[in-house]
């Protein structure tokens, strides 16, 4: 089990435990894509690109200097596949707070 952080539109982010990629697919409710934000080194974002324009906007990200939006649920994971630490979760909270 690894600890991830799940952010849904209009809800605070919460920690969750996952066993593997199937759990991530369930959390984002479909096929997923891995993206990153320039300000969250070492953290990857798992998103459902099929939600683009269909589900509510969640928050903006900056990837390679370009602004984009995350739609629907987003799962934050450690890029190296390990569990997020409390410090990682705190960094994500600060990141999300700055986006509101």
Form type: globular
The profile of the biggest β sheet is: 5 strands, antiparallel
Uncertain stretches = none
Number of domains: 1
From the structure provided, what is the oligomeric state, counting identical versus distinct chains? single chain
**Could you tell me the radius of gyration in angstroms?**
12 Å
- Structural class based on helices, strands and sheet pairing: alpha+beta
Order of strands, widest sheet: 2-1-7-4-3
- Strand segment count: 7
- H/E series: EEHEEEEEH
Strand content: 35-45%
Distance between the termini: 31 Å
Mean pLDDT: 90
Helix content: 10-25%
| Continuous helix count | 2
Characterize the structure shown.
The chain has one domain (2-99). It contains 2 helices and 7 strands. The protein has helices at 21-28, 86-99, and strands spanning 2-7, 14-18, 33-35, 43-47, 57-63, 66-71, 74-78. It has a 5-stranded antiparallel sheet with strand order 2-1-7-4-3, with helices on both faces. 24% of the residues are buried.
Features:
100 residues; 5-stranded antiparallel beta sheet; two-stranded antiparallel sheet; 7 strands; DUF3846 domain-containing protein; DUF3846
Short description:
By secondary structure, the chain is α+β, with helices and mostly antiparallel strands. The protein is 22% helix and 37% strand.
Helix and strand layout, with pairings?
Blueprint: E1 2-7, E2 14-18, H1 21-28, E3 33-35, E4 43-47, E5 57-63, E6 66-71, E7 74-78, H2 86-99
Antiparallel strand pairs: 1-2, 1-7, 3-4, 4-7, 5-6
């Amino acid at each position: 089990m690894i600890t991830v952080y799940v952010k849904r539109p209009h809800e605070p982010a919460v920690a969750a435990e996952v066993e593997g990629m199937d759990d991530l697919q369930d959390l984002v409710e479909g096929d997923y894509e891995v993206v990153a934000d320039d300000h969250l080194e070492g953290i990857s974002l798992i998103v459902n690109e099929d939600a683009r324009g269909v589900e509510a906007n969640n928050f903006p990200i900056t990837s390679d200097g370009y602004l984009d939006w995350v739609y629907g649920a987003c799962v934050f994971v450690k890029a190296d596949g390990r569990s997020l630490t409390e410090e990682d979760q705190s960094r994500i909270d600060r990141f999300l707070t700055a986006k509101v």
